[in-house]
Amino acid sequence: MHTAQPPKDRNFLAGPYIDRRAELREVEHWLDDARRDGSTRYLFIHGTAIAIRGEPVEAAFVSAEHPLVQAAAPETLVLLGWFRELRCVLVQLDAAAPPPADMRFEELRPLASELDEGEAGLLAYARALAYWQHRHRRCGVCGAPTAPQRAGHVMRCTALECATDFFPRVDPAIIVLVSDGERALLGRQASWPAGRYSTIAGFVEPGESLEDAVAREVLEETGVVVTDSHYHSSQPWPFPSSLMLGFMASAPADAIARSSAELEDARWFTRAQIAAGEAVLPPPTSISHRLIETWFDAGSSTPLRDLPTRLWSPPRRG
User: Fold this and answer.
1) Backbone phi and psi for residue 272, each to the nearest 5 degrees, phi listed first
2) 101 band by pLDDT with thresholds 50, 70 and 90
3) How many beta carbons lie within 10 A of that of residue 165, not counting itself?
4) How far apart are CA 91 and CA 281, in angstroms?
5) pTM of the prediction?
6) Which residue, among 256, 259, 309, has the nearest Cα to 280 in the 3D structure?
7) In whole angstroms, how large is the CA radius of gyration of the chain?
8) Which of 60, 72, 103, 250 has its CA at a distance of 20 to 30 angstroms from the CA of residue 280?
9) Alpha carbon 195 to chain centroid distance?
């Protein structure tokens, strides 16, 4: 089985995997151009389930000759951009459409790490757009139906007196590794696999800076007061529409962690405890794993990647 590993310098699902060519969304005849281009590749999505095929898993690209592409209504197609130098278009299938015999539809989250890294990023992008369109089929101002514009990247109210434009939504969420120097603060939710612990995370609220969100979420979920924080990296997480903003933060050495309504448990772990497997870590494709890795490697002669893989949970299918 192929398992994607993000490069050391960026997070999984992030990176220059696609040339978005946003200026071509303004071209009214973009779909005609795509159909005339024999190299254009199409992807199917059914709700939020992506079309895949094979083992190891790969994106199920098809050409314009595919019957479902031929039958697709223009408003169901979205220009994604150029993937590996080929134009790529998303086709949103109707619920009544029979599944093609040579592919299957699955949710992306449990299988993303089995895909090629670039394909995983492309499919995450496609899923995010399809989910956003589905959630904005009516105008939030007047209630009239909306219709896609700009190659599917804008949903516009069809009422002439309103004509409000709606753009793809991204919900910012902070995720933070808090350390007192020698220990890392990790928590677990009751629904997670047995023994799994991860970094603290939560959504940014209106009128709140990222640094304020870090301090508030850590205090609310663990009772620990953050004394300092700085940005680390980010990860798109379209499940359904988040952007995870990673931080490293400091706390006093005598800080006591407690559980909360959101966390079943919150506790401090030393590097020795993590190396011994006392915490099952999130998978390497997650930004939470990278934050833990950054802290761990800064004070360990053995990098986290060289420790046994039993220390983190494999992704779950189904």
Assistant:
1) -65, -40
2) confident
3) 12
4) 36
5) 0.90
6) 309
7) 22
8) 250
9) 24
